[in-house]
Amino acid sequence: MREIQLRDAKANLSAVVDEAIDGKPAVITRHGKRQAVVLSYEEWRRLSQVPSFGRLLMAAPARAGDLPARNRSRLRKTDF
């Protein structure tokens, strides 16, 4: 990913956007510090739709024999 100074990005914004659309994002720097990233809308959409951990677990291809059997002999006995 290339870095470009803010003043250069302003002067060449169309080119920076065209490159981002072509899959070449750019990091915008101000006073030598990384401040922003220009990337295509499609890439941003792909990155922003990260599923939750729960959805990832639900989508896992688990079968009945994939998990270890429960050892009931180690359960604690309680008096109620």
From TrEMBL:
InterPro entries from the UniProt entry: Antitoxin_Phd/YefM (IPR006442), YefM-like_sf (IPR036165)
A matching Pfam family: PhdYeFM_antitox
Domain of life of the native organism: Bacteria
SUPFAM superfamilies cross-referenced by the UniProt entry: YefM-like (SSF143120)
Classification via Gene3D superfamilies: YefM-like domain
Function according to Swiss-Prot or TrEMBL: Antitoxin component of a type II toxin-antitoxin (TA) system.
Family to which this protein belongs: Belongs to the phD/YefM antitoxin family.
NCBIfam families documented for this protein: phd_fam (TIGR01552)
Protein's name in the database: Antitoxin
Species the sequence originates in: Bradyrhizobium forestalis
